[in-house]
Structure formats: C-alpha cells, structure tokens
Amino acid sequence: MDNCIFCKIIAGEIPSNKVYEDENMLAFRDINPQAKVHVLVVPKSHFATLAEMNGEQAELVKKCMEKIPHIAKSLGLEKGYRLIVNQGEDAGQTVHHLHIHILGGQSMGEKML
Ligand code: AMP
Ligand code: ZN
Q1: How high does pLDDT run on average in the chain?
Q2: How far is Cα 86 from Cα 68, in angstroms, rounded to an integer?
Q3: Nearest-5° angle of CA 54, CA 85, CA 35?
Q4: 97 is catalytic
Q5: Would you state the torsion angle of the CA atoms of residues 28, 49, 64, 7, taken in this order, to the nearest 10 degrees?
Q6: Residue 1: which pLDDT band, with cuts at 50, 70 and 90?
Q7: pTM of the prediction?
C-alpha cells in the first residue's frame, strides 16, 4: 500500500532493526519502545484491522502467532511477555497495517494498562 510505513519497511525502503524475517512476516524493534524489549511482528500483507482481514491474511496472522514464542525466546523473554494488537481509534492505533506488539524484558505487573 502506498504511504504505509510498515509496507515500506517490509519492502526495505525504510530501515528497521530486524529481529526475524521469513516469507510471511517481519519482526523489528519498535522505534519508540514502551518496555525494555519492544518488538513489532508484522504480517507481509497490508490490512489495518482484524475486521478487514481476509482468509489468506488470517493464515498469515496464525503463522505470526505460531512464530512469536520462537521470536520471544530469541529475545531472551523466558520469563514472559505481553502481546498487544491495537484496533482502531480508541485503542490508539497509529499505523494502519496490522501488527502485534511484543513487550517484555521487565516485570509489567498484573494490570494491563
Ligand atoms: P500502534 O499504536 O499499535 O499503531 O503502534 C505503532 C507502533 O509503530 C508504535 O509503537 C510506533 O512507535 C511504531 N513505529 C512507528 N514507526 C516506526 C518505525 N519506522 N520503526 C519502528 N517502529 C515504528
Ligand atoms: Zn502496509
């Protein structure tokens, strides 16, 4: 998609601090980390939210979910991590290409926010 920053990162047009890549997804460090470890897992297909996702894209998200434990292990997150998927305005979604935040490297307590 034109003007999508994550499509540009996937295409290699904008640099990123990659931690994992395969044919289905790219994972890279968030530019504005909200935890000691903050990585974004981005499927290699442009859609903004789960509501807009088609069947093929759902397969990509499934593959992302299956890969996340391996990515987390490679990041040293043996003690756990939090996943966040912001959907739309009230969630504060700023990049309209679906992405899964991996947050960890520190205790985040029991509260979600
Ligand atoms: P969200 O608020 O869920 O849409 O999250 C978008 C995330 O993308 C934010 O945490 C931003 O810090 C992050 N972000 C935006 N641009 C970049 C970039 N060029 N490289 C890495 N992370 C980015
Ligand atoms: Zn995109």
Answers
A1: 97
A2: 17
A3: 150
A4: no
A5: -40
A6: confident
A7: 0.98
